Amino acid sequence: MEMFMMQLVESRGKMVVFDIDDLLVTTRLRLQKYISDLRVDFDKAQETYESGDYYEWDSITDYAVETVNLFRDMGYKISYLTGRRVSGFDATYKFLTEAGFPVDKDYLFMKENRTVKTPIHKNRVFMELMDQGWDIRYYFDDNKANLEVAVELGIPNIYSSIGYFFGILSDLDESEIYDLF
Fold it and tell me: What is the pTM of this model?
């Protein structure tokens, strides 16, 4: 029976994991709006930030939607692993889907609250996904501590920006791109 269960776990497939803030989206305007609002009504600004209502100020980084969709089209399960709080789950889901990102709500991982350190949160989620049998082949994140977590877990392809990865693809012909995946 245990051997049968291992075979089921091993068949989950290949996965790519993306951070969101300052990787898929630029947060500069969101943060500027938040700072301005803090000066007017500190408590309301914090409440609005926690709800995710400031996400509308974000903009998509170059090639982000295309890169995520390329991985989906190449047969990868898409997962998002962010330091955003779960209080902004609906706003995050709405923003990503309206921008054209493929999102499965079960694979949008967010922190319970601010007290959880993001690298610890990401390590826990990575371990859960690996224990479920996912083969995490690619990870994209702009934060050094989060990237170190991925290195320690042995994720083979780690990138700190979409632009860098997309630049690599632009130098390849179609057959070389398929070989990469």
Answer: 0.84
